[in-house]
From TrEMBL:
AMP-dependent synthetase/ligase domain mapped to chain residues: 90-285
Chain's role: Catalyzes the activation of phenylacetic acid (PA) to phenylacetyl-CoA (PA-CoA).
The organism of origin for this protein: Pelotomaculum schinkii
One Pfam match: AMP-binding_C_2
Keywords for the protein's UniProt record, in alphabetical order: Ligase, Nucleotide-binding
Protein name in UniProt: Phenylacetate-coenzyme A ligase
Family, similarity comment: Belongs to the phenylacetyl-CoA ligase family.
Enzyme Commission number, as recorded: 6.2.1.30
Length: 435
């Protein structure tokens, strides 16, 4: 089923015309109402009226995360506070969070975008949907919540944290859809096993996962662990939260809600636009957001766009699974390493569980990389020689992918700390000043 065929299956030319009209309005509105945009457009020597075609968006300056931080808390809002009915904030590991606001219309748009992605995943009014994102300032839980209600699903807002209770409710309430981060939902399957409940025996049939990078192999792990279809969905607080794009049942890229978001791909080094099919940084302009519109927001996320119509009938541009961020690249002894490359190596080896941590540090003047990974319970009971061989195999595979020697530490099952939200995969212990 398609939630809103009018927009999701719109003729491409009509969609571009709609985007252009909405973009014009957005640029005029921010120029009028947000001093930050007026100054940054003036500095770049552009005016909203310079936009004649959609491609002219490239003349306008980018917005970055520090712009939101520098205008904490309400400096980028384009409406009066009395029109703002909700605030969310991104966690941010250091300093002040970034704050985003929503008008009543923004909340309606948000629920609409989520209704589309949950419908794409196959969720209907007959489903019991359990939300295991943490309810709070984070956008994940409230975002999914209202869209699920909009399609008529029975929402169980169990939140994150009390994993045993979550499993008990899942069983007793007959949950059929699971919503959360891939890493926490994988952990929930372990908890079910510990409670003597086989996750595959539960009525769960579909998962909507997002909020962190997860590989195709991790998708396979989740599908096996729960006996479900695992769908991906993407978004970020600065633009709304979840709801920017999501997988349909064809699993061939996430459909973007293009009537609400204009998506570009740029070369992260030069800022130059890239074509469809080329891999680069995702840049998004909101087309309908009232409270805090964003112009050319640099997400740091890496993806590829595909404009071909999908077999599912939708015509919206699709984005490939986000495998990493431009800022999560590690430089270890001068070699560029993406955590997703390490995950792909680990997930491809039998006997290795999908729980790992990457430690980077310095010994004297030299960088080192240590990959800690848990064994599956079956492998753990194997003999010492087997484990030595496995360690060696992993080391060799990592070397062939990264061109870097890594120390591999095999750990017993369940020894790494589980997160209830986004997993923290990398611990970089190197001094920040480079000494
Ligand atoms: O994580 C919004 C969200 C909630 C999306 C629930 C999907 C489901 P933030 O906390 O602001 O918002 O984090 C945004 O998380 O820039 C990406 O780096 C990452 N991210 C989000 N979804 C995905 C995904 C939410 N499906 C940041 N795949 C983004 C990979 C993702 N990374």
């Amino acid at each position: 089923m398609i939630w809103n065929p009018r927009f999701e299956c719109m003729d491409r030319e009509e969609m571009r015309a709609l985007q252009l009209a909405r973009l014009r309005e957005t640029l005029a509105r921010v120029y009028d109402r947000v001093p930050f945009y007026r100054e940054s457009f003036d500095r770049a020597g552009v005016k909203p009226a310079d936009l004649e075609t959609l491609e002219d968006i490239r003349k306008f300056p980018f917005t970055v995360k520090t712009d939101l931080r520098d205008h904490y808390p309400y400096g980028l809002f384009a409406v009066l506070m009395k029109e703002v009915v909700r605030l969310h904030a991104s966690s941010g590991t250091t300093g002040k969070p970034i704050v985003v606001g929503y008008t009543k219309n923004d909340l309606e748009t948000w629920a609409e975008c989520i209704a589309r992605i949950v419908t794409m995943a196959g969720v209907t009014a007959s489903d019991v949907a359990q939300v295991t994102f943490g309810y709070g300032l984070f956008t994940g839980a409230f975002g999914l919540h209202y869209g699920l209600e909009k399609v008529g699903a029975t929402v169980v807002p169990s939140s994150s944290g009390n994993s045993e209770k979550t499993i008990m409710l899942m069983k007793d309430f007959g949950a059929t859809a699971l919503i959360g981060t891939p890493s926490y939902c994988l952990h929930l399957a372990e908890v079910a096993m510990e409670m003597g409940i086989d996750p595959v025996s539960l009525p769960l049939r579909v998962g909507l996962f997002g909020s962190e990078a997860w590989s195709e192999k991790m998708r396979g792990e989740l599908e096996r662990a729960w006996g479900i279809k695992a769908t991906d969905n993407y978004g970020l607080s600065e633009l709304m939260g979840p709801g920017v794009s999501g997988d349909c049942e064809r699993f061939s890229g996430m459909h973007i809600a293009e009537d609400h978001f204009l998506v570009e791909i740029i070369d992260p080094g030069t800022g130059d636009p890239l074509d469809y099919g080329q891999k680069g940084e995702v840049v998004i302009t909101t087309l309908t957001k009232e409270a805090i519109p964003m112009v050319r927001y640099r997400t740091r996320d890496i993806s590829v766009l595909n404009p071909a119509p999908c077999d599912c009938g939708r015509t919206t541009v699709r984005m490939r699974k986000v495998t990493g961020r431009t800022d999560d690249m590690l430089i270890i002894s001068g070699v560029n390493v993406f955590p997703s490359q390490i995950e792909s190596v680990l997930m491809g080896v039998e006997g290795i569980a999908p729980h790992y941590q990457i430690i980077v540090g310095k010994k004297g003047l030299l960088d080192y990389l240590e990959v800690q990974v848990e064994l599956t319970p079956e492998k753990f009971t194997g003999n010492f020689r087997d484990l030595e061989e496995l360690e060696d195999k992993l080391r060799r595979k990592l070397y062939s992918v990264l061109s870097l020697s890594a120390k591999v530490r095999l750990l017993e099952p369940k020894s790494l700390e589980r997160s209830t939200g986004k997993a923290k995969r990398v611990i970089d212990n190197r001094p920040k000043n480079g000494l």
